[in-house]
Amino acid sequence: MSGPCTSTYDFKPNGTFSGDPEKTQASKILSPLAVFVSLWGLAGNGLVLGPLVFSVKWDHFTVFIFHLSLADFIYLSCQTVVLVKIMLDAFHNIWFDAWPLEVFTYASYTVGLCLLAAISMGRCLAVLFPIWYRFHLPKHTSTILCILIWVSSIALNVSQETTFIHHPSVPGCLELMGTG
């Protein structure tokens, strides 16, 4: 296939690649460390999700924090599985395809970024227009906004995964389906 992407990776028939020995060594060192950090992040997000679900009175702000913590939890879960996949490939030459996890990883990452922007906007409204924010903001605005963010992020990432294919010789390079 012709394309703008070039690669130094050689793909094996079973789908794994043998690229730079330095990159393989780096993945053997960095992947376990990243899994460790991801597991600590999962524990931290679990500690935030627990009180939000069971004991905190919900308001506009806690709805955003709950959804942000949930998005981070999903992102870290998917990232941990992807890192374990990389470790299995690096240490034991075991490879499996995890493209559905990529959709959820990117979607939850996008949701997290959008929620951070929504939280910032909500805080700005609360500071700039405190009376309106307290007494005139519709009750379920933050819930509806969170639902719209989740739906649009998932739709965006699913459409990206179904519209573009990964270039067969270059990880990270995308081609429009039907052009190669």
Automatic annotation (TrEMBL):
Keyword flag ATP-binding: no
One matching Pfam family: 7tm_1
InterPro entries: GPCR_Rhodpsn, GPCR_Rhodpsn_7TM, MRGPCRFAMILY
Coiled-coil positions: none
Superkingdom assignment: Eukaryota
GO molecular function: G protein-coupled receptor activity
Localisation: Cell membrane
Name by which UniProt lists this protein: G-protein coupled receptors family 1 profile domain-containing protein
Organism from which the protein derives: Equus caballus (Horse)
